[in-house]
Design goal:
Elements: H1 6-14, H2 19-27, E1 30-39, E2 42-49, E3 59-69, E4 75-82, E5 95-96, E6 98-111, E7 114-126, H3 133-144, H4 146-153, H5 157-174, H6 184-202
Parallel strand pairs: 3-5
Antiparallel strand pairs: 1-2, 2-3, 3-4, 4-6, 6-7
């Protein structure tokens, strides 16, 4: 669950050439990153990653990115799928790899006046060649951390928690002890707690 409306979260996802995205790309071993816009709902996205393994060629990914709203604009789907494109041909310096991913955004009820978006993310990657399993797993973990980064990017937990605390403050201030009936069990719990104070005071 992300503390933002669908359009805002999806825009962050689709901003593949933003400074933030390019910085993370380099930190993750990225060598090249390009985007060709086809229309207002489709791009061709090209990336190259160094696996940081001696004698292993960098991996090249070329994806068609398509996004689409559902009929009532309560869900938005973004799909990355392998594609061949003349602007990003295969070359001997890289080994062509494969990735298919789908990101679905669903609008949820607001919490404390803050829009909530449920994000579901699936991804399947084939790095090609004879890659050790530990390398595949390492790459997979890095990719799946994407949702954590998205959650942190829009996190408004402090604001939400502050509103909850404010509601509790008002509830406590308005509470009239004499107008509220406490059960016998509740009275015993409070009395027992006060007994502990008396015991410690005696020490």
């Amino acid at each position: 669950i992300v503390d933002a409306p669908i359009a805002q979260v999806a825009a962050w996802e689709l901003a593949n050439m933003s400074r933030e995205s390019q910085k993370e790309h380099v930190e993750f071993g990225g060598l090249d990153r390009n985007l060709k816009k086809i229309n207002d709902h489709q791009d061709i996205f090209h990336v190259v990653y160094d696996l940081s393994i001696p004698k292993f060629l960098p991996r090249q990914f070329v994806s068609m990115v398509v996004w689409k709203w559902d009929d009532d604009k309560q869900e938005l789907t973004v799909v990355y799928d392998d594609v061949k494109h003349t602007k990003f041909p295969e070359c001997k310096e890289y080994l062509r790899a494969s990735v298919t991913s789908t990101c679905k955004y669903k609008q949820e009820a607001d919490v404390g006046g803050i829009p909530q978006t449920k994000v579901t993310y699936t991804v399947q990657v084939d790095l090609g060649g004879r890659i050790p399993k530990w390398v595949q797993n390492r790459q997979g973990v890095g990719t799946l951390m994407y949702l954590s980064k998205m959650r942190e990017r829009f996190d408004r937990s402090l604001e939400l928690d502050g509103k909850k605390r404010g509601e509790l403050v008002e509830m406590i201030r308005r509470h009239d002890r004499d107008a509220v009936e406490y059960s016998e069990e509740e009275e015993e719990i409070v009395a027992g707690g006060l007994t502990w104070f008396k015991a410690f005071d005696g020490l």
